[in-house]
Amino acid sequence: MRPKDLTPKEIVAELDRHIVGQKAAKRAVAIALRNRWRRQRVSPELRDEILPKNIILIGPTGVGKTEIARRLARLADAPFVKVEASKFTEVGYVGRDVDAMIRDLVEAAVKLVKEEEVKKLWARARASAEDRILAALGGASGDREKGRARLQAGTLDDEEVEVEVSERAVPPVPVMAGPGMEEMAQGLQEMFQQMGQGPLGSLFGGGKKRRRKVKVKDALDLLTDEEASRMVDMDRVVREALDRAENHGIVFIDEIDKIASRESAGPDVSRGGVQRDLLPIVEGSNVTTKYGMVRTDHVLFIAAGAFHVSKVSDLIPEMQGRFPIRVELEPLTRADLARILREPSSSLTRQYAALLATEGVEVTFLDEGVDEIARIAEEVNERTENIGARRLHTVMERLLDEISFDADRMSGARISVDARYVRERLQGLASDEDLSRYIL
């Protein structure tokens, strides 16, 4: 399955379903994604020359930087990893090396492609699992189809059956610190797994079969997973995953402003070093992974940072050159906060209503109530640290604290959240300078 062929307008429309505002950022990532589709359709001799235009998203916390990148990857069926630039250290210091982000990207690609293959094989795997369960139940061959019909209808779900399942007990690999150690640990893990599946498997705790007595419903799921994994051609999965990582992978580097310093002394000695180590990855190099070499030339890098203290110009010039597209995201207004509560398909108001409905409590958020929640969230953001839309999570939690605690005893209750309801529970909190600090 190749990444979806979405036009820039379609990409922006999809992003609009989940993220409020930030039109400039959405346009930038939509064009970047469409350019990948265009690149696949140019002549081969020109294709390798067309490099992605990496993007820096500049804006305060909680305005949608991470969400834009994550939703973009999901739209494109692209491997995606999010890393914090401040977690890396330059070569020579103990910590994660920058190559780890590409190894993580390849792991994400393998997982993504394997899941797609399992979905394709699910029907065959299910049929094989049903055959094994029917054999374990001891039905005669003539009764096999009748038994299958009962199995599929769920009438046998609660019966117990003894099935044989594979067991892979791989010895744990010790945690290793320092640059390059992660790859060594992964290599050892892979070696043990291969030994566990080989002729000497029993010596390494792998390849064992264990008989388990479980209910038919659970056995069906267990055996379906086992059969699907057995049917998957992992060589093909790895080839596809490497291609997907190289040509469609997206790496989101958060907190890039934390390493935006040219100073090389003091406690932040590795800031400039991390930037220099990132350069070859971002501009294009070969990274060794346990699945093979991966070229990073056509990986799309989206960096983000608040840049409150530092500026983009504080990055070393070479790093600035690798991120030619810069987009400033707007701080969220009261109207934006209200839209975030109303418009997305998985908005907070819908989430809380659904959660409390499981206890038989019907909560309805009226428009005036939503506006009041947005007003108070904006006010607390102004009085304390501005954390954008994340403020809504804690305000909503405080607003519904009593209902959430007592919901198990309120079955059948109907609650309308209007402006008065919100003010009664939150007004004192928002107006008190000291108390408002407790709403993070």
Provide a concise account of the structure shown.
The protein is α/β, with parallel strands linked by helices and about 450 residues long.
Structure description:
The strands form four sheets. This protein has a five-stranded parallel beta sheet, with helices on both faces. Strands 3-4 form a two-stranded antiparallel sheet. Strands 6-7 form a two-stranded antiparallel ribbon. It has helices at residues 8-16, 23-39, 44-47, 65-76, 99-137, 144-153, 181-197, 216-231, 234-248, 271-283, 317-322, 334-342, 348-357, 367-383, 390-399, 401-406, 419-431, and strands at residues 55-58, 80-84, 160-167, 208-215, 250-254, 286-289, 292-295, 300-305, 325-328, 362-365, 414-417. Helix 14 packs across helix 15. With 440 residues, the chain is α/β, with parallel strands linked by helices. A hairpin with a 2-residue loop joins strand 6 (286-289) and strand 7. The longest helix is centred in the first third of the chain and has 39 residues, at 99-137. The protein is 51% helix and 13% strand. It folds into three domains: 8-107 and 241-328, P-loop containing nucleotide triphosphate hydrolases (Rossmann fold, 3-Layer(aba) Sandwich); 125-239, no CATH class; 334-426, Helicase, Ruva Protein, domain 3 (Orthogonal Bundle). The protein is built from 17 helices and eleven strands.
